Amino acid sequence: MIFTLLCFCIIASSTQANDIFFAPQLSGYAGKSYTGVQDPEYINYSSALQDYMVKRIHQQYGIALDPKTFSVFDLLEIESLLKCKKPEEPADLFLKMFPKYR
To answer: In whole angstroms, what is the distance from residue 97 CA to residue 93 CA?
Structure first.
């Protein structure tokens, strides 16, 4: 048990700060419940998250995307594809997989 706890502490302490998904501008939405996708608070949250994801993709990969073109889920998928792509592969190859980008 102590060994397991020790391993957990070592792994947790080795996590880099930029690997943790945390956006201060989104912390105001933490723990809130929404009645549905038409809820004005949910729309505000979704818009803030889209803006954050577009900014993050631009900072990390130098690709400018329109936050209104892609859903949050699309942006998360785009980010994961860009993270896994080989350096010699063009980013457009992955972006063309999304119908809204064409």
So the answer is: 7
Query: Structural domain boundaries of the chain?
Result: 37-102
Find out whether 42 and 63 touch, Cβ atoms under 8 Å.
Answer: no
pLDDT band at 55 (very low <50, low <70, confident <90, very high): very high
**48, 41 Cβ separation under 8 angstroms:** no
**Model confidence at 65, in pLDDT bands (50, 70, 90)?**
very high
Considering the entire predicted model, what is its pTM? 0.69
Arithmetic mean of pLDDT, 69-96: 89
- Name the one residue in this structure whose structure tokens are 């063309």: 96
Would you state the structure tokens that stand for residue 91, as one six-digit string?
């980013």
Q: Which residue has the tokens 């501008």?
A: 25
The candidate with the shortest Cα–Cα distance to 99, out of 67, 56, 70, is: 70
Instruction: Identify which of 22, 30, 70 has the alpha carbon closest to the alpha carbon of residue 50.
Output: 70
DSSP class of residue 3 equals: H
